[in-house]
Inverse folding.
């Protein structure tokens, strides 16, 4: 598995197994177990996914050395404060049956981000968190956080897919030494992505699936990729992307698919921000 070194010197596997929307506890536990068996060493969850306990059980069931795994979780909006990070992270660790996480992210750029970041810096120094970062932050918010705190974010996890490619954001993050990480690389199947003519033609040329073409496109940009599936064969397929390369023509064709906007929602929409503020997990 290819790994990328973050700005704190810690390596992160470039392919991660995402667990968003795998809410059934039995299914989530089995999916994580199978993902690790298939070869994943990077598992991504969040407080708001409501599956941390099942993810922890899947990790335990896999029975491999903890240091071989890279585990990420995220702090939900209601817990984005100094005290909230300390209290809710302990709950997350207890649910996952872990002593530490490899990466902790502020899930959304709302609430007391600065207070939360100070707590995360302290927890990183205590080695309860190995790496710290953010998710869904615009570049200006990430740079602001970086410049006015002791520790710069190691990661910004954002939506990146063929329909929302964000080249300028990716370039700016890399210039700041912050690693871009892609959620929803398949746009959750929107716009018939798996039967898209351009992607399908590239896939046919390389004797690969459309999913593998998208993952390879991101890997070649040195972007960490999170994919989700509960199907073991697709897990294996999504890992099999290191035996081919895209051509310049392939990449230029993929560039033509960029719509330049989120396939889901805007993080600047006041109604969406209110929805997040109102969503209470009680942890």
């Amino acid at each position: 598995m290819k790994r990328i070194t973050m700005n704190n010197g810690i390596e992160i596997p470039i392919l991660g197994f995402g667990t968003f929307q795998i809410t059934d506890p039995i299914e989530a536990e089995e999916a994580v177990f199978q993902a690790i068996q298939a070869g994943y060493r990077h598992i991504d969850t969040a407080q708001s996914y409501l599956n941390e306990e099942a993810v922890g059980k899947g990790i335990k069931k896999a029975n491999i050395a903890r240091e071989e795994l890279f585990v990420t979780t995220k702090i939900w909006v209601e817990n984005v404060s100094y005290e909230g990070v300390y209290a809710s992270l302990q709950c997350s660790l207890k649910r996952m049956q872990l002593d530490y996480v490899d990466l902790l992210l502020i899930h959304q750029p709302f609430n007391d981000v600065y207070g939360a970041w100070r707590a995360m810096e302290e927890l990183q120094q205590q080695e309860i968190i190995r790496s710290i970062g953010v998710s869904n932050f615009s570049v200006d918010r990430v740079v602001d956080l970086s410049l006015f705190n002791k520790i710069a974010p190691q990661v910004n996890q954002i939506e990146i897919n063929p329909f929302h490619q964000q080249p300028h954001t990716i370039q700016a993050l890399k210039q700041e030494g912050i690693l871009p990480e892609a959620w929803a690389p398949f746009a959750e199947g929107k716009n018939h992505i798996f039967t898209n003519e351009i992607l399908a033609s590239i896939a046919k040329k390389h004797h690969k699936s459309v999913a593998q073409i998208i993952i390879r496109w991101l890997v070649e940009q040195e972007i960490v990729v999170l994919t989700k599936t509960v199907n073991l064969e697709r897990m294996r397929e999504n890992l099999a992307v290191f035996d081919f390369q895209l051509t310049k023509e392939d990449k230029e064709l993929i560039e033509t698919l960029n719509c330049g906007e989120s396939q889901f929602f805007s993080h600047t929409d006041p109604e969406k921000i209110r929805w997040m503020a109102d969503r209470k997990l009680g942890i």
In short: The two ends are 34 Å apart (CA to CA).
